[in-house]
């Protein structure tokens, strides 16, 4: 399985994502610059964290117009796994691949620390390696992670099992402590915490590794014929 790590001007977690995929997970990864227009040959798409275009206007608001985003939307429509972490999540929201929006953190401070998350839905291609209700420790690092959506959207997310991760403590003011959501089709996940920074014990936690392993396992089950 081959992953694309999309790089925007201002991305700063692209190398962490690349390391998580190629060294911790042992899969193939390649950087793809935002000016590219094709994602042919890639099986999974990763939008890493950072400050694309300096977070000007709103985080992700400029990046979503990057030439590569047409290909990201196309890949999402084709059912390929698309994971947006932190700024990647913000870009997915701005691109309309996920519902809702991000506000500045309650308290208006940048938060950078490990956070305990609860796995709300383990029946997805991203979370099959976890158990329902499992508590995992994944670092957060954001200033604009206060997830907001209207009542109708929230009810839909809840009803369809699209809320994937919740913060144990409401660290940033997010509606119902939402830390990560998925699209209805189940192949696009956005999350503010950084699983790529929690893939080996040396980093303080390896709780993020199962997320990447789940994606690969699902891909193998659906794409690799067994005899
Ligand atoms: N680590 C990141 O991706 C930072 C996300 C974003 N630019 C924010 O501060 O909200």
Automatic annotation (TrEMBL):
Cited InterPro entries: Class_I_gatase-like, PRibForGlyAmidine_synth_PurQ
EC number(s) recorded for this UniProt protein: 6.3.5.3, 3.5.1.2
A GO CC term assigned to this protein in UniProt: cytoplasm
Highest taxon listed in the record's lineage: Bacteria
Pathway involvement of the protein, from the record: Purine metabolism; IMP biosynthesis via de novo pathway; 5-amino-1-(5-phospho-D-ribosyl)imidazole from N(2)-formyl-N(1)-(5-phospho-D-ribosyl)glycinamide: step 1/2
Gene3D superfamilies cross-referenced by the UniProt entry: 3.40.50.880
Classification via Pfam families: GATase_5
GO molecular function terms noted in the UniProt entry: ATP binding; glutaminase activity; phosphoribosylformylglycinamidine synthase activity
SMART domains per the UniProt record, alphabetical: GATase_5 (SM01211)
GO biological process: 'de novo' IMP biosynthetic process
Keywords associated with the record: ATP-binding, Cytoplasm, Glutamine amidotransferase, Hydrolase, Ligase, Nucleotide-binding, Purine biosynthesis
PANTHER family: PHOSPHORIBOSYLFORMYLGLYCINAMIDINE SYNTHASE SUBUNIT PURQ (PTHR47552)
Function: Part of the phosphoribosylformylglycinamidine synthase complex involved in the purines biosynthetic pathway. Catalyzes the ATP-dependent conversion of formylglycinamide ribonucleotide (FGAR) and glutamine to yield formylglycinamidine ribonucleotide (FGAM) and glutamate. The FGAM synthase complex is composed of three subunits. PurQ produces an ammonia molecule by converting glutamine to glutamate. PurL transfers the ammonia molecule to FGAR to form FGAM in an ATP-dependent manner.
Record note on quaternary structure: Part of the FGAM synthase complex composed of 1 PurL, 1 PurQ and 2 PurS subunits.
Protein name according to UniProt: Phosphoribosylformylglycinamidine synthase subunit PurQ
């Amino acid at each position: 399985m081959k992953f694309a790590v999309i790089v925007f001007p201002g991305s700063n977690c692209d190398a962490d994502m690349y390391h998580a995929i190629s060294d911790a997970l042992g899969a193939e990864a390649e950087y793809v610059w935002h000016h590219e227009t094709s994602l042919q040959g890639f099986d999974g798409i990763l939008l890493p964290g950072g400050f694309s275009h300096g977070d000007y206007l709103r985080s992700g608001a400029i990046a979503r117009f990057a030439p590569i985003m047409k290909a990201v939307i196309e890949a999402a429509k084709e059912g390929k796994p698309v994971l947006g972490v932190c700024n990647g999540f913000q870009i997915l929201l701005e691109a309309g691949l996920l519902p809702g929006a991000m506000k500045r953190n309650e308290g208006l401070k940048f938060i950078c620390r490990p956070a305990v998350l609860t796995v709300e839905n383990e029946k997805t291609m991203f979370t099959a390696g976890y158990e329902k209700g499992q508590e995992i420790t994944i670092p957060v690092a954001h200033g604009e992670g206060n997830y907001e959506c209207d009542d109708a959207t929230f009810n839909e997310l809840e009803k369809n099992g699209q809320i994937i991760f919740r913060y144990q403590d409401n660290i940033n003011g997010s509606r119902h402590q939402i830390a990560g959501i998925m699209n209805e089709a189940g192949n696009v996940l956005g999350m503010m915490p950084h699983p790529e920074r929690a893939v080996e014990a040396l980093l303080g936690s390896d709780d993020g590794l199962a997320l990447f392993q789940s994606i690969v396992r699902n891909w193998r089950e659906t794409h690799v014929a067994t005899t």
